[in-house]
Amino acid sequence: MANGRQATVKRLNMAERAQQQMDLHFPGTDPRFMWHRKRNDGFTTIPRTMPLVMQAVDEASKGTPPGHVLFCLWARSPDNPLLTIENPATFAAEAGFSGERIVDTWRKRMKKLREHGMILTKKGATGDFHHVLLLNPNTGVETMRTHKNVSDDLYGRFIDRMAEVGAYGEIEGIREFWAEQAAAAAAVKAAAAEAGPKNTPAVTKPRKRSKVKVQKKEDLI
User: Fold this and answer.
1) How many CB atoms lie within 10 A of CB 174?
2) What is the pLDDT of residues 63-79, one digit of tens each?
3) Fold of the domain built from segment(s) 47-169
4) Per-residue confidence at 220, pLDDT binned at 50, 70, 90?
């Protein structure tokens, strides 16, 4: 796996090759017709695997595909994983929903994203999705795979793309995390079994006092 320096060099080489091809096939194109993140405002950073991630969540959410909703969340991200949603209707409209129940439709998709490990949410002034934490979508797909929610064909293309962009270490990392969790849980269980049941002192009931028959005075005469 390439280290940080090697990855940087690779990206520069790819950019140089792309520029050479652009100069060859599209010479003289005015730069004002093109968008570049270092020159243009209004950008964020999105994982290169996002198209496959969107396919995965749509595949796992039959009838309520939330892939485009996820993309809209990332497009609104200020290069920080936390979003505060002040107006859900705006997000719903950007995701392509319309009608009287536009926000309800959007919320159903948001629930699917939460179920599939793509987001964490907290209640706020605008409802259940006022605060949204964007989780790593790559580890989200791996989580979905463990629940058999991603087909072999799509998962294979996802893994190939992860290796292609140098991100496969994220998959290895989340697997290590799960292994550590399992080992910790097993250790706790083993310790509890070794300790055995607690020895509690037996509770003895107080002995009943024997009744003494009091003889009547006339019986003593």
Assistant:
1) 17
2) 999 999 999 999 999 88
3) Arc Repressor Mutant, subunit A (1.10.10)
4) very low
